[in-house]
Automatic annotation (TrEMBL):
GO terms for cellular component: phycobilisome; plasma membrane-derived thylakoid membrane. This is C-phycoerythrin class I beta chain. The keyword Thylakoid applies. Pfam families: Phycobilisome (PF00502). It comes from Parasynechococcus marenigrum (strain WH8102). InterPro entries: Globin-like_sf (IPR009050), Phycobilisome_asu/bsu (IPR012128), Phycobilisome_asu/bsu_sf (IPR038719).
Amino acid sequence: MLDAFSRTVVSADAKTAPVGGSELASLRSYVQDGNKRLDAVNAITSNAYCIVSDAVTGMICENTGLIQAGGNCYPTRRMAACLRDGEIVLRYISYALLAGDASVLDDRCLNGLKETYIALGVPTQSAARAVAIMKSAATALIGQTNTPASGGAKYRKMETTQGDCSALVSEAGSYFDRVIGAIS
Ligand SMILES: CCC1=C(C)/C(=C/C2=NC(=C\c3[nH]c(/C=C4\NC(=O)[C@H](C)[C@H]4CC)c(C)c3CCC(=O)O)/C(CCC(=O)O)=C2C)NC1=O
């Protein structure tokens, strides 16, 4: 598993080059924006239950066959496995966001996942849809663009210092896209 720092060292070493210029500039912004990053991780982890259950519910509403006999969220054992998988994926995304590097997500979660899903008959298109809904919710919470209309009774705005979080929103979004890419 790598993070923003170890990634810089590994790639500089591969080129037998010193760490300099643009690498140092990007580490500087990683350090400078450290508190924003921690807030972004908190926006995901402290709303994980809501993000996961809402995404799996949305996926099922769009495809109710999933909870009927023969569907992959039927019976409750499979429904539980599906919710658990959503939670696992979101947890590894939160680790990647904390580290500023996708390797923990790749190595410990996505490696072999598509093959596992195909072997078990888990519909990867539906799984990708659930991840896409998690992306919408998580990025709205990080960027504070969620609205009472989309949040309904569970509407919540994170209490953080106001500032520009667009880089973290797109970085977090890229980890969700990575999951979708890996299972599609
Ligand atoms: C460390 C990382 C890690 C991951 C990622 C992981 C995934 C994972 N998901 C599994 C099953 C499963 N995953 C799902 C998920 C779904 N079904 C649907 O219809 C939806 C599309 C989707 C939820 C969004 C289901 C239903 C099963 C059980 C399938 C079965 O046993 O028939 C299994 C098979 C073993 C088990 O049932 O526990 C693994 C290994 N396990 C891990 O340890």
